[in-house]
Amino acid sequence: MSASVGIDLGTTFSAVAYVDPKTRLPKIIPNREGRNLTPSVIQFLNGEEIFGGEAEDAFNAGEENCVATFKREMGEEKPFCCIDGKPYSSEELSAKLLRRLKEDAEAALGEPIKDAVITVPAYFYSKQREATLRAAQTAGLKVKKLIDEPNAAAMTYGLNCWRENANILVYDLGGGTFDVTLVHMGKDGELATVATRGNHTLGGRDWDARLQEILIERFEEETGLDLREDREARFMLGGMAEEVKKELSAPNMESVKVVAKFPEYGKATISATRAEFEERTVDLLSRTGALCLAVLEEAGLAKEDVADVLLVGGSTRMPQVKAYLEKLFGKPPLSRVNPDEAVALGAAIQASKENESYVSLSVAVVDGKKTTDRSGIQLTSASKAVKAEKNLGNVGLLSLRETTAHAMGVVAVDKDNDRYYNEIVIPANHPRPVRAAKKFRFFPSPNGDNELAIYVLQGDDESPLNCQITSKYVASGIRYAKENAALGVVIRVQYSYDENGIVRVQARQDDSNVDLPIRKESLPSDLSAFGRPVSAAQNAKGAKGSIAIQGVGAQSLAHKYKAVTFSNVKWQKYDAVASHPSGAMFGEPSVHVVAEDKRIEFHGYNVSEMDEGVQYEIEPDDSFVIECDVDTSTIQPHPGGSLNISLGLIEAQLTENGGSFLISGKRVAQVGSRFHLRMSLSEGGKYEVAVDGKVVGEEFKASKRNVVVRFGFVHEDHYCKLLSHAYVSDISMSHAAASDGEESSEAETWDD
Ligand code: AMP
Questions:
Q1: CB contact at 8 A, 628 and 675
Q2: Mind listing the domains of the chain with CATH numbers?
């Protein structure tokens, strides 16, 4: 027999739990001291590593060679501490603690641990999650999944108190981190994370620091002595402040007196009141409140739509936290789970489940703005009745769908080629695991190795320097294509945000279905260049370590290009035509389509049939709206050049003066050279065309399969010498969520 366990690897305490096979309920596994919680403290003594109560006592007594709160620096490369001349990273210390937790749990259960679900703060970045995974592997643990702490707590809560249709805000204030997560309880047991925010340097320790200041001031008032610069005194004050904080948090405790005694400073009796403690820390609470409101805004909900606020984390024991949240939400928050154990219990529930498979990115475009499509999660506004609370009985029904905590982007060069910006590949708060790819233009050099630097960003901000620059990858082996020298090549970059919140990067060239070789490199120490204009060196074609370029830099190139980002868009190439059937030869570049985010331009020469443009094949469940401003006045010269727009059912062949729209061969509208076109296909197969705001035709098509949207050229009988700059702009397309189940975790699976 072997067990699957859940481990809460906490900043201050850790805990291990499992699901009892008889009751199908989660249970804490006590450590070798018989305690449910193991302090996250290690003491190094005479070559031995000491854990548990003994290590905690030694740490509190200020003994040397003790380490605590190392989780705060998880993922940092620099050592967390140096003991007996040996440096230890947070990851190494966590591995030691995890090994101890594993040994204790195996001894208590009397069986080996098969695998484990380990919890991390929701706001942990990819590199902190990777470090957690490596620490677990070093400890000999097979990790089934990492899950976010608030989600684990919500599962524990949901087990006993399921409320169908309820939006629950999980407020998790621990010793070193703060996370706020909105979860939705759907049908029995179906729990989904909707949005999450947090600050991984805000926690109980910040409250301790404020209390420390109060104690220092009091000591100074009593003795005239200033302790601020004394390291040893400050260390002692740290422990004292936490004790005073806990005492002040007890019911009806308005003030606390302590005898403070410091070597070389003597002693004094000092006191702190709850009122002044609360006053000095009110800004910290406001910071948590602002993040709560940000989460609601992200979810599109009002405060009234929150059915309950659930308190998790040791610091929520401070009475001011409850009072603040009651004022903010107009109802008292719930303290219905044990804040110290709920996370481990939830991890144990998850450990008893199978892992999720990948979904495709699902993005809706509303009013031209891309947002995460949450059509899968029916959020409940206050008006929809939240069903009465019930006990699910056992873990069987519970399932969890987690989301991405951060947007993931790549450092790219903007279309004017003068600025670096964050091109988001996966938005924040999207169900995970998820994978998505974007296209970037790159200019290889004819000689030399062509390499592309991909800087991975976590965060929403447009400026790379306001995001976390988490890692650097270098894709190599990019092929130079002489015939495409002017336009460069397209590199598709794919991010896979896995079930653990860890991001994997892949790259492919043009239509290849083989990944480019990719290696991870350490980040340069100085990244400030991303805040400055793009340098000429970085712009040079094929420069080693170039950044994905989306605009074309060199003056001689007339066209700016950015790959269109609608899902399933397929570019039709027109490379083959160098001469026309008439025998005319053309030294010009072949026809191409130039697309920017909201604007598609058609540039061309020598076109003989419609086989170039944007083509989009509609899936049966799709719906879309395409809106564009069309200007055909620059089609030149005439006669002969024309722009064709086709949408399966609609046809238009336009010259520089405009032309007619036909539906099923029937003319429905006459347009001049400039007009606004709106085409939509909605559920049920209703297809509607509007020109300049007026509906000119509608049809129903029972099956949407094989309807093809196409913008491109047509020129059948004549050739034209120069056909350029007919363009459509302001295209917005809302595309329904891609179907589930088509994805696998295979490396070959690409989403673009
Ligand atoms: P956690 O990371 O969830 O284990 O929370 C640890 C934090 O909770 C530390 O900052 C503790 O000081 C704080 N904490 C624990 N118990 C209390 C209490 N009774 N009152 C106030 N803070 C507490």
A1: no
A2: 3-202+284-400 (3.30.420.40), 204-282 (3.90.640.10), 408-561 (2.60.34.10), 572-736 (2.60.120.200)
